[in-house]
């Protein structure tokens, strides 16, 4: 395997790992808040579950970017490309938007989700407002996923 290919693989790994770590922290924050609320109001489980799960999407986005890169360079379903070092760094850089923003946005979204869960405990009909506010953080993860995909495919 060439140095460029190894650099690209490291980029793919970071695209999967960093948003995954952020999602672990984000979902954990939401889960802690959800457990506290459901200990007193178990009937809110359905509303709270959605809020608790939202920070997990960044891990999915990072995984998707990593898979797309591995397909692009032939590691999945093809013959691996012998990438030059500069090409490897280009692919590495293509993974960084979702890797970095995915990490930060998942943690931030977990904080917003936790507060939305507490709001839902006090006002169950406000859960949709909480979901909307929590999803606003998601917007930036989606945008950076799109940037990473466009960079991976060179569009």
Topology:
Layout: H1 3-38, H2 45-53, H3 57-72, H4 85-122, H5 127-152
User: Pairing-aware structural class of the strands and helices?
Assistant: mainly alpha
- In one word, what is the shape? elongated
Number of domains: 1
Percent helix: over 70%
Uncertain stretches: none
Estimated share of beta-strand residues: under 5%
Order of secondary-structure elements: HHHHH
CATH topology call:
Four Helix Bundle (Hemerythrin (Met), subunit A)
Q: For this structure, what is the CATH homologous superfamily?
A: lithium bound rotor ring of v- atpase
User: How many E strands?
Assistant: 0
Biggest beta sheet attributes: none
State the end-to-end distance.
26 Å
What's this, in brief?
By secondary structure, the chain is mostly helical. It is built from five helices and no strands.
Characterization of this structure:
With 155 residues, the chain is an all-alpha fold. It has one domain (3-152): Four Helix Bundle (Hemerythrin (Met), subunit A) (Up-down Bundle). Helix content is 81%, strand content 0%. The chain has 5 helices and no strands. It has helices at residues 3-38, 45-53, 57-72, 85-122, 127-152. The longest helix has 38 residues, at 85-122.
Defining key terms:
Four Helix Bundle (Hemerythrin (Met), subunit A), mainly alpha, elongated, 5 helices
